[in-house]
Amino acid sequence: MTTQAGVTVQAGEAARPVEAARPVEAARPKRDRAATRRRILDAARDLFGEHGYAGVTVRMIAASAGANTALVNRYFGSKAALFGEVLEGESTLRGVIAGDPDGLPRRLAEHFVRQVDRRPVSAMTRMIDRSAGHPEVKQILLRYLEDAIVEPLAAQLGGPDARARALLASTIIMGGGPVRRLLGLNDLRAADPAELTDRLTAMFTAALAPAPGPAGVHREV
């Protein structure tokens, strides 16, 4: 066997080129888009809850999430859109509204009581309390009210005046926010939860019921 100019030759064989060793490239971890989005949403939720909408910048959110501002903007478009997505993701109302329409008033009442008794208050509650006065947040809350509460409620109700009935129930749901911010919830927390749930069930039942027709006769749904 002889070796000539990078070619190995054995007796009776044609020359074959010697293959050069190829460097092994280190595997590069692929960016996990879902995990990155989740980190950004979690960071935004915590920061909005702590500082309010006006006190938070995209740069702050990116730094907390271990991302860069360009990535935050690429995934969500703007701070307002990010706030809206956090709000939607934190809401449990869609699940409360879905289900048997006959049990809807009771489910709404139980949800209301859970929020009253929740300590500490949820991240979503802190976000709204500390951001509600901002003009951009007002528009986000209007869209949230429509998409997450009014439309799903109206779809559950059907029949005449479904949207008006859904709006009436929504005023009970969303009205708890101003009461909480201005007066606090100590009196409601001191009430018996079962009694409070029964009272709220009656309120939601009345709000969601079809309007009475002539001579006090309820219209068919």
UniProtKB/TrEMBL annotation:
Sequence ranges assigned to domain HTH tetR-type in this UniProt record: 34-94
DNA-binding residue intervals: 57-76
Record Pfam families: TetR_C_16 (PF17920), TetR_N (PF00440)
PROSITE patterns: HTH_TETR_1, HTH_TETR_2
Domain of life: Bacteria
Keywords: DNA-binding
Segments passing through the bilayer: none
InterPro entries membership: DNA-bd_HTH_TetR-type_CS, Homeodomain-like_sf, HTH-type_TetR-like_transc_reg, HTH_TetR, Tet_transcr_reg_TetR-rel_C_sf, TetR_C_16
PANTHER family the UniProt entry points to: HTH-TYPE TRANSCRIPTIONAL REGULATOR RUTR, TRANSCRIPTIONAL REGULATORY PROTEIN
Protein name: TetR family transcriptional regulator
Species the sequence originates in: Actinomadura graeca
